[in-house]
Amino acid sequence: MKSLDHNPDCRCAAAPLARVSPSPLLPTGGMPIVALWPTGIVIYELTMMGAILATIVTFLITAGLPRYTRRIYDPEVSHGKILVALIDTDQELRAKLRQKLLEAGAEQVKEIA
């Protein structure tokens, strides 16, 4: 208990544990206070629960769910078209990009609001 002497709160919290654990007055019938098999089962179950929760969280993060931002999509992408998206650009840059894409042979350039 020397390491607990500097903190009275910690000393008060650890006092019941220090009193009960080595106590010869606690009637356990020759058995340990903490049984290994039931403790092992609880630890195993908690480990499995942690593994399942970690798998679910990893799946959600990898899948990008839930998605809080608006998804940029055009149905024509499903038919083999290519989507080039710009977000929050000024009008001058949009006009230059539209001109460059049309010069490069783009079939269609449209803006999605």
Shape: rod-shaped
The total count of strands amounts to 0
Mean pLDDT: 83
What Rg is obtained from the alpha carbons, in whole angstroms? 33 Å
Number of helices: 3
Structural class: mainly alpha
- Overall number of structural domains: 3
Strand content: under 5%
Q: Biggest sheet, open or closed, and with what strands and sense? A: none
Helix content: 40-55%
Give the end-to-end Cα distance, rounded to a whole number of Å.
69 Å
* Unreliable segments of 5+ consecutive residues: none
Order of helices and strands: HHH
Describe this structure in words.
The structure is a single chain. With 113 residues, the protein is mostly helical. The chain folds into three domains: 1-31, no CATH class; 34-68; 71-113. The chain has helices at 8-20, 36-63, 91-103. The termini are far apart. The relative contact order is 0.05. The model has no long low-confidence stretch (mean pLDDT 83).
